[in-house]
Amino acid sequence: MSELLLNPEELKSITEYCKKCGMCLSHCPIYEASDRLESVSPRGKLIIGLGLLSGELKLDETLSHKLMSCVLCSECVDFCPAGLDIPNLILGARISSKVYEALPESLAKVIENIKTKGTPHGKDVTEKSKWFDLVGEVEKEGDVLLWSGCTSALTNPNLVATAYKLLKKLEGGSVTALRDEPCCYAMYVYTGNLDAYKEEMLKVIERVKEAKAKVLVSLCPACTRSFRIYSKLVGIELPFRVLHVSEYLHEKLVKNGKKIALPNPVTAAYHDPCTLVRGLGVRDKQREVLSSIENLKWLEMKGTRNCCGGGGAYGLYQPDWSAKISSRRLRDVPEGVKTIITTCPTCEATFKKAIKRENLDIEVRDLVTLVYEGLKE
Amino acid sequence: MLEQVAKLIGDEIGADKVLTSYSDMYVYEFDATPMFRGKPDLVVRAFSIDDVVAVMKIANERKIPVVPRGHASSLTGAAVPSQGGIVLDLSAMRKIEVHPEDGYVKAEAGATVAEVDLACNEFGFFLPPDPASADTATIGASIAENAGGMRGARYGSFRNWVLGMTVVLPGGKVFKLGAPVFKQRMGYDLMQLFIGSEGTLGVITDATLKIIPQREGLVRFFSYFRNIREVVDVIQDLKRSKIDPLVVEFMDEETLKCVNEAYKTNFRTDGIALMIDIDGYQEQLDAVAGRAEEIIRKHNPLELDKARGGEPKAIELYTARKASYPAISRLNKIVLIEDLTVPLSKVPDAFSEAKSIGRKYGISIPTFGHIGDGNFHPTITFRELTKENLELAKKIFEEVSDVAIKYGGVVSGEHGIGLQKKASFVRMLESMGSSELIEYMKRVKELFDPNGIMNPGKVF
Ligand SMILES: Cc1cc2nc3c(=O)[nH]c(=O)nc-3n(C[C@H](O)[C@H](O)[C@H](O)COP(=O)(O)OP(=O)(O)OC[C@H]3O[C@@H](n4cnc5c(N)ncnc54)[C@H](O)[C@@H]3O)c2cc1C
Ligand code: SF4
Ligand code: SF4
Prior knowledge:
The structure holds two protein chains of two kinds. By secondary structure, chain A is of the alpha/beta class. Chain A has 18 helices and eight strands. In chain A, α1 crosses α3 and α8 crosses α18. Chain A is globular, with a radius of gyration of 20 Å. Chain A starts with 7 loop residues before the first helix and ends with a helix. Chain B is of the alpha+beta class. In chain B, β5 and β6 form a beta hairpin. At the A-B interface, α3 and α4 of A face α2 and α12 of B. Flavin-adenine dinucleotide sits at the interface of chains B and A.
């Protein structure tokens, strides 16, 4: 993963290394979901980015739609002979061309939701606190802060409650969380609006500081990226550590040799969230946690492409293509396996929808719930 | 006028398959060459042969150019709509049927070579031609370009594997050519005309290709020699000893330097790297590989390493070859890849002369390729993308092409003529005393494409 380039000249100069060879095409889930529409292929999006940077193209809603048709999964990156970090260049093009000024309607709605309701999903931010009722008391301050993210809190409050109880158990000490937790505002970065992101992120940081947290543990890889990577991009130094929950569990369990055993044997396939494995470069830690769980037989998913179709809030923006991608990914579950484990609330929610749609008998579980079950006694 | 055509085609096949927006046209302007661009007037995405027929009827009636397109990875400008018109994008037509019992695979034009090969692998078979671009190269285009690859030393290019195909001609006439059998006599073999035709005669909508059982094992040798002459001596000696390697690839010092610079590797750069794969059945593999090793050693390599297929080291040894084009791409914004092919005995002289042209102009021409069949790729490189550099690159390209002509070879072994090699193609025919052949080719084209709508301006 390379640095996101903000200087348009530099961005243009690097994008010019693209040879238009097309070696990235068949690895892009969006290209495949679109039945191979060139303008949403990785190459097509770079060509559009370059056109905007050189002034040959002028931003309009159509172009903005093309540039936004990227789940930032980085699947294409390994196949680019020129070694380009394609999603970062696409993101750079979104920022430099200010795509937020010409967003397609469905995406503009998502941004409007964040502005007016506090969540991309269009539900009021207060609804994010439902899980508080499931755990009794949540401390107002603590060294460790559980960050749920909008998707977990709104679609799976039980997961957040379980995560809170798990953290309490592992910490022994106080664990805090934010009531009416704000959005992580990654969507502002995805849509190229760094100024708005910075303004809101500074407020978010204040809230975390008020809770006296030294470590923020996030259930959501995308929120983790927003804190860890995007904040740096706008020159913010975070006054606390940020860990994705899989990294946190690795520190607490694997490093300490802590024993976890499931009460009953489980066989499951592990699905890697793109943002965790390629966006944040975390590949081994989650696997080591899985391997440390007794009574769990876990397998890798089949195939080389792993996008679930939900990344970069894509499920909210273009549900039809997103659905195609998730249905395809479900075919990678090894024969006979009935459980998928993942560690991203968006992957989980996307899969659950797809399983229902496809009428399959598969359950999806977060790593957190497995660990909690294994630590119960 | 083309708005009307777009509507006509849309009414016939569905408006969602017809693209006209400025941004859609913009992304179809290119192929994998840095010098050619051309804006189409409209793009049609074909999902079935009926879609193709409809386009070919309407375009022919109105004499509108049609450029068939797979994934536009062509390295010659062949897929660039240089005279506008309709780009007919076939990439969504991608059904594959494997018939292991009869030893063939049938694939629609837009399936990629890698997808077809993978489908065959499931039955223990494989598709022998393997362009380095297999992940993206489509079957229809690979036939239209008569593409080759690393296994070319043994299996040659696509031509050797095509048994049959369906083509749609301007006007919408559909022809089935060939049959799914390994021997066939059908009068004049017109199917061969479509192989390597670069989209100038008609549209290939599907093809039937011969496939063969996968080999059981492989031994890979990676060696270095002091110069290209020694490398050619080794290859000739292997052949004299009745050894027929699967892959024979080389990289020169400048290519190895690029790999080291781009990937921070440590390949030695004081010689030419030679990679040889020997494949076969388990029972005979060790014996044949042993003989090959003896021969390679007899020529005193600077270094020799080997690994069996499946071992991690076998992949490691492949790294430098696989990284050649990527390394060059990472370092240079202009990459113009030549495709010279000369008789094996002439490779040392042709190679040295191509390299000396680089020295004359003070630029780097890293060279690598499929030396087993005399096909190699001197690659003209410039770090920066400027107009001056592009002009100079074009000039050097022509000079290097002439080296192939001088040594009795061809200016293209596998990438085709397109726009880029039109001039050198003419010079090549002149040197053979066969300039008039172009006229014959034009007449053949006229027979299939009387209105001259198919990929006009390409090849000649
Ligand atoms: C990194 C890289 C590596 C490469 N390695 C090799 C290699 O090892 N060997 C090799 O031979 N080539 C190689 N090539 C060149 C190129 O990939 C091949 O020529 C490939 O077969 C083109 O496939 P495509 O689908 O991209 O075709 P396109 O570029 O879309 O089309 C190529 C030509 O075929 C015509 N065409 C396309 N589809 C049809 C059809 N259905 N019917 C009729 N005409 C059609 C087009 O009009 C055009 O003239 C490489 C290219 C790159 C960028
Ligand atoms: S990051 Fe993913 S969605 Fe975006 S261009 Fe690459 S493969 Fe496609
Ligand atoms: S693989 Fe890389 S160089 Fe090739 S078209 Fe895609 S982005 Fe460009």
